[in-house]
Amino acid sequence: MFPAPIQKLISHFQKLPGIGPRQAAKFAMRLTKMTDSELKFMAQDISTLKSFVGECKECFMLFDKPNSGILLCQFCRNPERDKNKICVVVNDNDALSIEKTKNFDGVYHVLGGHVSLLDKEENRNLNLIGLKNRIKKETEVILALNANAEGQATIMYLEKFLEGLNHKTSRLAQGMSTGSEIEYADDQTLINALKHRR
Q1: What kind of architecture, by CATH, is found in domain 4-50?
Q2: For the chain, what are the domain ranges?
Q3: Mind listing the pLDDT tens digit for each residue in 67-106?
Q4: C-alpha closest to that of 89 among 118, 35, 126, 137
Q5: Top-level CATH class of 82-195?
Q6: What is the DSSP letter of 179?
Q7: Max CA-CA distance within the chain?
């Protein structure tokens, strides 16, 4: 059994998605090897995180909060972005992977997870209503979701959820192989998937 302070850290790390007890224990043990000043800076960065990071009120992407009180991310407040092209992604990493290709001039919408077909409560945490509110007649909604079972289930749900809004819906082309995740796709694959969306 680990000492109580390490056990506490393990339980904190286990709250992070995809972190099991063994990996959480590795993280906690690694912290014991860090210097006091490294730990102090890390603790300070964690404690001020919410003060300096905002969530865009339009697309729900995280951004550096300026002192001016602006509530929009860099993409939503950029007048040169095409607001009639909304690329729906699961998380910020997916949006930033697409952005890196320099082939998309629209805006994003971060769902915050996949749609759960089993647990309807879980879907309440997703930014679904925010998406519906952004759609106008001339809007193209690009469903840029992972080419796996969760992604496909989310696409089917969204197509039904957005039915009757008189907009165009497209999906990434199958340059994305089945089972692949957007975050790990190379730039050329993403460029092709965006270019040949249907």
Answers
A1: Orthogonal Bundle (1.10)
A2: 4-50, 82-195
A3: 777 899 999 999 999 999 999 999 999 999 999 999 999 9
A4: 126
A5: alpha beta
A6: T
A7: 60
- Spatial separation of the C-alpha atoms in residues 31 and 9, rounded to whole Å: 9
> What letter would DSSP give residue 54?
E
Tell me, what amino acid is at 176? Answer: M
3-state secondary structure of 83: strand
Task: Name residue, tokens 């694959």.
Answer: 189
User: For residue 73, what are its two tokens?
Assistant: 């991310």
Q: How far is CA 193 from CA 174, 183, 196, in A?
A: 6, 13, 5
137 Cβ contact list (under 8 Å, min separation 6):
166, 167
User: At residue 161, what are phi and psi to the nearest 5 degrees?
Assistant: -60, -35
The pTM assigned to this predicted structure is: 0.78
- Paired strand residues for 143: 88, 171
Give tens-digit pLDDT for 16-71.
988 999 999 999 999 999 999 999 999 999 999 988 999 999 999 999 987 777 89
